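Renewal narrative, Specific Aim 1. Our central claim is that a sequence can be written position by position from structural information alone. The example that follows is taken directly from our test logs and has not been curated for this report. It begins with the structure tokens describing the chain, in the order in which they were read.
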């Protein structure tokens, strides 16, 4: 499997300090994961959120593979959403709380603006942060996700059934071998079985527990509530910046015929299939959701990712792509005068330094010329 290739042994990899804690106040939730420093100085930042329960370690080879070239354009922060991995836990899965977690992480780590991306539920977190905080978002990249109601999808009902099975046992009264045997007997999908196994953690008491908040997760997926992992609420509004959606051709989460329409509804700047919406050709494999497991498929997704980062992310919406930055001018007022001889002014759209809030790069602009 692709994820086992040891491509990520770089000195630029840093796991975040701290342990997961249960928080009583949503605003106290801290996100954690791993940071991969890009190959050049002063690169913008990419915040990436994996699928529910998926460990951040599974995505390290994807981003650190030199053939994928993603680290040529961004510093990458692979972060577990709340209630997963080493991030803090809180009962709320409200979409606004998920979005605020992201911006809070950016503030604590002195990141002014960032590219937000994710896989599955992680893509929902990224898009939600873009909707609620567009001024902090340069672009959104979603892998195998569509902002819609996926609670009836076969893939989600399967996941819900697995979580119900896990809730029926008390891991603290079992040995690891007993838990592994339970997973083998009750979790039919080999990939989900592997993910749950990777989420086992040994407590200081010697007992075993899950890295994710099983109680909160079980309550969330068991009821058709507005904050369900698989539901996109209307209250999140629109994301008006640049966005890109990519998914496997035979995805179980994004059905090509109909599930691409919500992408255009929530992200009005998306230009449609073949431009900002792409299906990646591949086999009709039930495991194709896990793109990093298949090297050929992974490379295609990485290529789309790299093109988005290099050509579109952070580029003013009035321009076609990065090639027009500083070259193309747009009219300040479009044909508002009846006088045919009126000369219209134009301007070059502004592009800000990616970390202007925590940098003095613009300090001299406030000083009047003497």
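The sequence written for that structure reads:
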């Amino acid at each position: 499997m692709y994820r086992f290739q040891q491509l990520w042994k770089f000195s630029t990899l840093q796991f975040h300090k701290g342990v997961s804690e249960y928080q009583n106040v949503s605003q106290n939730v801290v996100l954690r994961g791993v940071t991969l420093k890009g190959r050049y100085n002063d690169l913008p930042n990419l915040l990436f959120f994996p699928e529910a329960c998926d460990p951040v370690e599974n995505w390290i080879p994807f981003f650190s593979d030199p053939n994928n070239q993603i680290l040529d354009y961004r510093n990458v922060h692979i972060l577990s959403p709340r209630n997963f991995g080493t991030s803090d836990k809180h009962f709320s899965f409200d979409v606004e709380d998920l979005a605020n977690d992201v911006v809070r992480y950016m503030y604590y780590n002195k990141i002014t603006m960032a590219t937000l991306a994710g896989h599955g539920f992680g893509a929902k977190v990224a898009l939600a942060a873009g909707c609620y905080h567009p001024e902090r978002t340069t672009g959104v990249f979603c892998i195998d996700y569509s902002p819609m109601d996926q609670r009836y999808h076969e893939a989600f009902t399967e996941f819900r059934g697995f979580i119900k099975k896990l809730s029926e046992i008390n891991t603290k009264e079992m040995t690891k071998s007993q838990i592994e045997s339970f997973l083998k007997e009750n979790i039919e999908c080999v990939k989900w079985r592997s993910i749950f196994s990777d989420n086992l953690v040994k407590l200081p008491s010697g007992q075993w527990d899950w890295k994710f908040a099983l109680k909160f997760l079980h309550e969330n997926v068991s009821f058709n509530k507005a904050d369900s992992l698989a539901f996109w609420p209307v209250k999140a509004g629109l994301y008006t910046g640049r966005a890109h959606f990519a998914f496997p051709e035979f995805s179980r989460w994004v059905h090509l015929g109909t599930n691409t329409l919500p992408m255009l509804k929530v992200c009005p700047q998306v230009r449609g299939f073949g431009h900002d919406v792409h299906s990646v050709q591949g086999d009709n494999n039930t495991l194709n959701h896990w793109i990093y497991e298949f090297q050929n498929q992974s490379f295609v997704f990485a290529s789309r990712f790299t093109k988005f980062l290099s050509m579109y992310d952070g580029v003013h919406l009035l321009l076609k792509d990065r090639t027009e930055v500083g070259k193309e001018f747009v009219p300040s007022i479009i044909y508002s005068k009846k006088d045919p001889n009126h000369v219209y002014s134009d301007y070059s759209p502004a592009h800000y330094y990616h970390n202007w809030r925590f940098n003095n790069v613009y300090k001299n602009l406030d000083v009047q010329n003497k």
